Q: What sequence folds into this?
């Protein structure tokens, strides 16, 4: 899916809702447990209930890997069932040296390999450029790079202050001469700046947690045109209003993820209906913010 396609979908549906398919077998309504594939049965019902209001679906791969081969089958069936006009995200948080990343990319981007054909994948940037580029070798596929996440531990590394030469070289450390011509950034800001030399807004997004709204305006200064994938609205307490006010662009520019608040709105026979209600509530609020954006 292209940048323009995604933007048009957001404007058409008046929504930038991403539904996170963090499907936990232990939390499924009991009446589904007799299904041949309970996870797919649940996902199918959720997709049917929310597709009018969502522009994206994001299976968290850990929930499927934990079930072994059966989980991968559920994932493949789920991916094939998602409507073609919805942007698909493999929330896998991969990131390794080049040849290994190449195999991860093949897993999620080549249907003839593992049977999967996602539009995008989340990637951890810690190992640098050569761990990210193999994912960008696939034309039309997106990298969603972790930048500033919602979890409390994000402060351990992502907010560390870094120094860099304004000409792009690193300064400081190891007794190196420290010139006055340096920039001071937090590490997540360095990630965003550097990654934009690897790919443009049509191929790369950044993950920014919804509980990090104090940084959202700064992030928009650093990456004015890139889409941001924003988890943490709903069960994690992030503010959709604040995220939207600071993060929306003329093209939309946001995919706001909600998982537990939609998936587990009910654990009864009405689980799909309650999921639809929750998704529609978010979509209606999003429509208001889209109308107000600059």
A:
């Amino acid at each position: 899916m292209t940048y323009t396609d995604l933007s048009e979908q957001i404007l058409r549906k008046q929504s930038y809702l991403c539904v996170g398919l963090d499907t936990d077998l232990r939390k499924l309504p009991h009446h589904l447990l007799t299904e041949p594939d309970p996870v797919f049965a649940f996902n199918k019902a959720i997709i049917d209930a929310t597709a009018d209001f969502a522009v994206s679906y994001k299976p968290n791969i850990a929930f499927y890997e934990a079930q072994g081969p059966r989980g991968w089958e559920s994932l493949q069936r789920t991916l094939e069932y998602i409507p073609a006009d919805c942007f698909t995200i493999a929330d896998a948080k991969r990131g390794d040296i080049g040849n290994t990343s190449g195999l991860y990319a093949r897993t999620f981007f080549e249907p003839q390999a593992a049977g999967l054909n996602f539009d995008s994948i989340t990637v951890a940037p810690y190992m640098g450029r050569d761990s990210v580029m193999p994912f960008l070798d696939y034309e039309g596929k997106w990298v969603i790079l972790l930048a500033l996440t919602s979890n409390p531990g994000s402060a351990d590394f992502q907010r560390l202050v870094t120094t860099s030469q304004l000409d792009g070289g690193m300064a400081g450390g190891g007794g190196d001469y420290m010139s006055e011509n340096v920039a001071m950034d937090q590490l997540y800001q360095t990630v965003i700046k550097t990654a934009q030399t690897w790919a443009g807004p049509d191929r790369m997004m950044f993950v920014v947690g919804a509980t990090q709204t104090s940084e959202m305006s700064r992030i928009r200064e650093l990456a004015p045109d890139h889409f941001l994938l924003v988890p943490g609205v709903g069960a994690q307490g992030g503010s959709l209003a604040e995220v939207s006010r600071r993060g929306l662009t003329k093209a939309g520019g946001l995919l706001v993820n909600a998982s537990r608040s939609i998936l587990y709105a009910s654990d009864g026979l009405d689980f799909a209906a309650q999921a639809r209600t929750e998704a529609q509530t978010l979509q209606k609020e999003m429509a208001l913010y889209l109308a107000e954006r600059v």
